[in-house]
Amino acid sequence: MPAELAAIPAVASVPVTAHAVAAQVAVPVWLELIAIVVSSVSGALTAREKNLDLVGAVCLAALCSLGGGLLRDATLQVGNVYILNQPAALPAAIITAAVVFAIPTVIAKQDRLIAVFDIFAVGLYAATGADKALVYGFSPIICVTMGFFTGVGGGMLRDVFLGQVPHIFRRSNFYAVAAIAGASAYVALASAGISHVIAVIACVVVTMGLRWLSLRFNIMSPTEVDLTRVVPRRHRARRAAELADDASREAPATKPRLNRPDRSTAELAERRRRTLADIDRRREQERRTAALDRLKRARRKRNQRKLDI
User: What is the pTM of this model?
Assistant: First the structure.
């Protein structure tokens, strides 16, 4: 009996999200494979740019395509692990990496098509990541975060493995912001009772739309924000005057300055006088040296004439 009572707190500590409160959204397998293949292409091309071998290309392709979902599943610790539950996921990433590694020029020429499918994959991943957290009863902000991790986590892990600052943390056109907006749209629609299929479509449309707008009008993510520049000028002047008054009140009393000549001007004049005197002294020394040289040459000439005679 005491052992049973001691086990009660452990049972009570089990989170309520241990079982799904609804079924996860059903995404067609061919759509999942398209997203995996496109993301794998991105990772394999990056491996080619960094002069990695075939193993490096496969690893980067798997990270780009499946790393976000793995990060989500490891964080949530509920339900199935996608990379283990979908038998075609990892082989698709490996085959894609091998093909791109062998014939990169054919794939690299389709850069615009790859870019379109890449942001489509980000939107699809963001929707599925947010959906998994939502069906297991997590809060909306956790659902959006999981959608963000699933959408851009693969690229983030790729950059970390390459030892560089993740691209999503640098100033660029909307990419991570688009994933967050898409996941937020999905969570908002799904929580409102709208069909999860419609919510997935809305998530993809919002993600791709924001990405396109940022590229079309060159909208960049900000690197620094200074709200003091937004304050009206008169308020800034008033604030500066208040700070000056506070500084004058806090400053210690100083002795009154005596009326005396400007030392800096006198020092400059004295320095100029010494410089001119030094120049005159050097010139006089050069003249004396030149005169001595002339006398020596004349003396040598006289001695030479005497020897000739």
Answer: 0.67
